[in-house]
Amino acid sequence: MRFMLLAAVVASLSSAPASLAQEAPQGPQMTVADFIDRWTAVKAEKDKPEQAAQAARLTYALGESFKRYKAELDADAKAGKPPRACPTKGTKDTFQIDDLVNALDDLPQVRREGAFDTEFFEFLDRRYPCTAPVSPSSPSAPAAAGTAPG
User: Which of 4, 46, 95, 136 has the greatest CB tally within 10 Å of its CB?
Assistant: First the structure.
């Protein structure tokens, strides 16, 4: 089963039913490991209505994370900071959720226990690189010469 995350759909999730918001962990409450476990459960669920409900809750959580990411990009732009990433505005760009899960699965265990938002934001930073210089505060900024990556 393949799920696609549409940026346009994610942006429209603010009108999702309250029941989705109540069941989906928010922000730092969800770790990378939690997200991977939830995605694995969605894929393993045999009951189609339950699978759809679980997928909707997970999509809602992704949408909320995406809104926080966009808010950070907007705040940086308003403050005159160089962008950490440059997602194309006004498009229906998609990616396979399996691409995100595979990237998260490749993380060392210690990073899987960290906040989902942090790793999701880095995934998006890599997905939407800027041709202009990236903000040095971005976790995806290249390490300075002679320093080890963080």
Answer: 95
